[in-house]
Design goal:
With 115 residues, the protein is mainly α. Helix content is 80%, strand content 5%. It has a two-stranded antiparallel sheet.
Length: 115
């Protein structure tokens, strides 16, 4: 099935935010990391609603883990806790990759469908 425009927007937002997040982490820009985490947290909440409507239990669990990782990332950034930032970022990145492996399929035209 083709993802909705809203879902595609969330995915693109997460991609852009993750790119910015990497730069903010390297620069030790804690305010930037916290802002990125807040964006991701909001996106994960919307993705959870999408997957809940689809009744896809593993994707619901993945998005809940992503939201928790983003919340932990925001907390660590506000505390300027580099180890906490690294751990939370690893959790967030893992949820993205795990969901993509389970629920995303690239088509020959390089677009994606939900599988």
């Amino acid at each position: 099935e083709k993802p909705t425009a809203e879902f595609q927007t969330l995915m693109k937002s997460n991609g852009a935010t993750n790119g910015a997040l990497r730069m903010h982490i390297m620069a030790k820009d804690y305010d930037g990391v916290a802002a990125d985490a807040a964006t991701l947290k909001g996106n994960f909440a919307k993705m959870e609603a999408f997957w809940t409507a689809q009744k896809v239990e593993d994707a619901i669990a993945i998005t809940k883990a992503g939201a928790k990782g983003a919340a932990d990332l925001e907390t660590a950034a506000k505390a300027k806790n580099d180890d906490g930032i690294a751990a939370a970022n690893k959790t967030v990145a893992g949820t993205c990759g795990g969901c993509h492996m389970a629920h995303r399929e690239q088509l020959p035209d390089k677009t994606f469908e939900i599988k």
